[in-house]
Design a protein that fits this description.
By secondary structure, this protein is an alpha/beta fold. The chain is built from 10 helices and 13 strands.
Length: 332
């Protein structure tokens, strides 16, 4: 059986930097309030009309392919993770395929929010392990700045979320010690409404009609404390699931890359597993929460910074809307 080795990573963020002080001009908030609750001091938001979800994904994918020394024509399968797309349908995977100039290559979209990249990685890994494909491109790309309430009413969400994209190239290897060693996926739909966005929806006709009169229905809804309590439980569980499946312990990890949801969550999970913070990749301070893009972005930055090297044992883990959560243990 083949293993899926990550041979290239890439990321892209918009140039437009939004600081906490910029948000102070939009809503009743403060730099101190945001940093204390999230650990964020700035994030990237697109300039409307200048970026697209698939376009940012393409830039991240291009970087990953160049790092891997892989021509787009060698890609046999595309997995594209994003909460929304550039249009109602089709999804970003097909738009990505067209940009790469590889018609006929299958493309799949995954809408699992913060855990989207982990789910996409698991899908790509399984296709390689079964011998279906040898080279798979997995992308996470998000534009959230256009869909959040930037008033005081929506500040709990709008100070957190940001725009960006990340990508990874997977290639089959015969080395059983390299690549994706194990993946673990979970979901619990009982908590779907704790973190969700109701519009657009089939619950009114037509489904894509103008927005609700009640703005609470038009923007993402999150019960922050509830999500936090579940996240700090599910993160350690799914990380230990991956480690136990392969005979490793937290002490064996060279790097832990969590979904960049909230710095407080990251620190709580690291403390619970006794992972020193110098072994934790955190990008939220300057890039915010980019949902499906956060893990591949952080992974690409870790490679650039030399935190991931040949032979590094790296654990990825995410928790988010659905609720969905998952982990992957990778030997680079």
């Amino acid at each position: 059986m083949k293993n899926a080795q990550i041979i290239g990573c890439g990321h892209y963020v918009p140039e437009n930097v939004i600081t906490n002080h910029d948000l102070e001009k939009m809503m009743d908030t403060s730099d101190e309030w945001i940093q204390e609750r999230t650990g964020i001091i700035e994030r990237r938001w697109i300039t409307p009309g200048e970026e697209t979800i698939s376009g940012m994904g393409y830039k991240a994918a291009k970087m990953a392919l160049e790092q891997a020394n892989v021509d787009p024509s060698e890609v046999e399968f595309i997995v594209f993770a994003s909460i929304v797309g550039d249009m109602g349908f089709p999804g970003g995977g097909c738009l990505m395929q067209e940009m790469l100039g590889i018609p006929g290559v299958p493309a799949m979209d995954i809408r699992n929010a913060c855990s989207g990249f982990i789910y996409g990685l698991a899908v790509g890994d399984k296709f390689i392990k079964t011998g279906t494909y040898k080279t798979v491109l997995v992308i996470g790309s998000e534009i959230q700045s256009l869909g959040i309430d930037k008033s005081t009413r929506g500040r709990d969400i709008s100070v957190i979320f940001a725009d960006g994209a990340g990508a990874a190239v997977l290639r089959a290897t015969d080395d059983p010690e390299k690549g994706v060693l194990t993946t673990h996926l979970h979901a619990d739909g009982r908590y779907a409404k704790k973190l969700c966005c109701e519009w657009p929806s089939i619950h009114h006709t037509p489904a894509m009609n103008p927005v609700y009169e009640d703005p609470d229905h038009n923007f993402p809804h999150m019960e922050g404390r509830y999500v936090f309590k579940h996240a700090v439980v599910r993160f350690p569980e799914v990380i230990m699931e991956a480690l136990n499946a392969t005979g490793y312990s937290p002490k064996d990890l060279d790097l832990f890359i969590p979904h960049q949801a909230n710095q407080r969550i990251t620190e709580a999970v690291a403390a619970r597993l006794e992972i020193p913070m110098e072994k934790v990749m955190s990008t939220i301070k300057y890039y915010g929460n980019t949902t499906a893009a956060s893990i591949p972005m952080a992974m690409s930055m870790a490679v650039q910074e030399g935190k991931i090297k040949e032979g590094s044992l790296v654990c990825l883990a995410a928790f988010g809307a659905g609720f969905t959560w998952g982990s992957a243990l990778i030997r680079f």
